[in-house]
Amino acid sequence: MDIFADLHNHTTASDGDFTPGQMVEQAKALGIKAIGITDHDTLEGLKNAVAAGEKYDIEVIPGVEVSIRFKRSYFTGTLHLLCYFSSSRLLDDQFVKGFKNILAHGRGEKLVKARVNEINKIFGPGREKALLKRNLKFEDISALSDTATRRHFAIALKQDFGISDTNTINLIIGNDSPAYLPSGIKLEEVIDFIRKNHILAVLAHPAAGSFPGKGHYKEVLPPLEIVQRILPEFLEAGIQGLEVYYPGHTKEHQDLMKSWAEKYHLLITGGSDCHDGIERPTGVRGISESEFKLFKETLT
Fold first, then answer.
1. Inside any domain, residue 85
2. Is residue 73 part of a domain?
3. What are phi and psi of 17, to 5 degrees?
4. How far is residue 286 from each of residues 4, 35, 271, 292, measured CA to CA in Å?
5. Using CA atoms, how far apart are residues 79 and 70, in angstroms rounded to an integer?
6. Which end of the chain is least crowded, N or C, by CB within 10 Å?
7. Are 192 and 164 members of one domain?
8. What pLDDT, on a 0 to 100 scale, did the predictor assign at position 193?
9. pTM for this structure?
10. Residue 218 pLDDT
11. Which tens digit of pLDDT belongs to each residue from 98-123?
12. For position 223, what pLDDT does the model report?
C-alpha cells in the first residue's frame, strides 16, 4: 500500500534498536511523510524525535503505547492504547509530569522485581518446575534496559541462561505462565487523564493475537475474541480510533477492523510497530494521506 504516515514505532527509549533520530531518519529515507513515535509507557524519546523531524523535514507525531492491565477469569494480560497528542504538549510541564506519574504505576523497578521473584519461585533451582540453572536476578534485566519489557526478559533467558527454545521462554514469561504478572495500569487509572487532556486514544493491533502465522507481531496478545469482549470498555472510555493496518493483521482482520471503525465511528490508523531493522522494520504498514488528514483533524 501507499504509506503516507506510519504511526506506530519504537525507539531506544523503550525496547527499540534505533534512537529517535535514527528512527525519523529511516522514515525520511523511505519517503514517509509523517511518523508516530510510540514507545512503551514512556515519553522520554519524544523531544529528540520532534527535533529530528525538524532536521529531516518530516512530521513527527508524539505518542505513547500505554499498557492496560487486565486480570480476569477469562484473560490475564495487557492490551495496548496508542495515545497521540500535539508536539506542543511536550512543552507543558504539567502535562508531561502528569502523564509520567500515571505511567509509572504500570512499569519500572517494582514490577520487574516482582516478576523476577515469581519466576524464581516457580522455575528456580530446586523448584518442582525448575528450568533455571540459577535464580534470575533483578540485575539480569535492569542491565538491559531501564524500562524493561517482556523482550528484555527473553533476551536475558537466552543470553544468561542459554534458553533459546521459544516454547520454553513462553512457558516462563508468557501470559499463560503460572509466574506471569501483567504489566501496565488499569484502564480507569488513565481514562480521566485522556479525556481531560484531549488525547487521541487508539486501540493498538486488536487482531494481532489471532494472527495465523509465526513471528513477533503475534507475541502473547490475546485472541480476537477476548479483545471483542473487552472492546465495549474501551469504547466507553472514549477511544477514537482502531489500528487497522498492522503487520500482524490479515486481510480478513483488516476488513473486520474497518467494519468496527464504521460501526463505532472510529478513526482508522496503522503502523509498522517497528522495533528493529530486520524482524520488525519500519515502513511496512501505515495509512494514506486522506486517512492521515482525518487523524490530524482530530489531534489536538
1. yes
2. yes
3. -90, -15
4. 7, 9, 4, 9
5. 8
6. N
7. no
8. 97
9. 0.81
10. 65
11. 999 999 888 778 789 889 999 999 99
12. 93
State whether 244 and 261 are in the same domain.
yes
Among residues 137, 155, 173, which one ends one of the domains? 173
CATH code of 79's domain: 3.20.20.140
Number of structural domains, the chain?
A: 2
Residue 154 in domain: yes
Q: Which of 173, 197, 215 is the last residue of a domain?
A: 173
Give the type of residue at 236: E
**Do residues 194 and 81 both lie within one domain?**
yes
Verify that 211 and 262 share a domain, yes or no.
Answer: yes
Segment 195-204 mean pLDDT: 97
- Is residue 220 pLDDT above 90, yes or no? no
Please indicate, yes or no, whether residues 152 and 289 belong to a single structural domain of this protein.
Answer: no
94 and 187 in a common domain: yes
The CA-to-CA distance between both ends of the chain, in Å, stands at 27
> Taking a C-beta distance cutoff of 8 angstroms, is the pair 270, 297 a contact?
no
Q: Which three cell numbers stand for residue 284?
A: 511496512
Q: Are residues 168 and 259 in the same domain?
A: no
* pLDDT per position as a tens digit, 131-169: 999 999 999 999 998 778 888 999 999 999 999 999 999
| Domain-located, residue 3 | no
What is the model's pLDDT at position 294? 98
At 54-81, the pLDDT tens digits run 999 999 999 999 999 887 889 888 999 9
Taking the C-alpha atoms of residue 41 and residue 204, their distance in angstroms, rounded to an integer, is 13
pLDDT-above-90 percentage for the chain: 82
